[in-house]
Request: fold
Amino acid sequence: MIDDQLRDLIMKSSPAGFWREISTRQEALYNEARSYSYNKELWEATEAETVFPIALRAIFENVVRRAAKLTQLKHFNMMHNGENYPYVLVKSGKLVITAHHVAGPSHFVRSAESRKQHAGVNEWLDTWVRPELLLHPVPNLREQGTVYLLILHGQVREEVEGKEIHSSFLQVAIPDAELNKYRRVYHVRDLLQAYSQQEAAASVNVRIADRAVPAIRKKESK
Reply:
């Protein structure tokens, strides 16, 4: 497993079960949102195009909240500064996490004052990832403060043999303090694989306790 301190910080500060729950539910929730939105008994296609992104966002936010509950993480129902949309914020160790639907893998999230405020905690990371500017040794990540993460999710439409196919993506992005670009982007599937490798390595290193009780042989009487 390639050494990556930021990835290791994410893994140390958040349980694999949180990411696994979201990843496992992703496909089903997209289908659920699409089925609800494009229900011809409720409205026509024009209204469906408006409803779908709202339904998708709401269902995904609920899945993130549910994943936090299942893994006993702190979660909060927040409101954007404009008080136009609620959102779920999860805290896990040193991590602050929010979820966002984007048009494609690694696409940047829309600018919002609340996101900029959250991203401000990543100011120390901006120095850490630019070692050429350092006048002092690189800081130890274990001793630093909070890191703000974005869960990026969505689907890309592709046409295969005349059929429309939806390919899903699920990523974790670390933005800079100004919310202008991503410092790191990880695929959740790669994180889960790293968790599995970590668990496998730990199980190999576990020593099995020797519970054998020596038996004392008695001398046979002649």
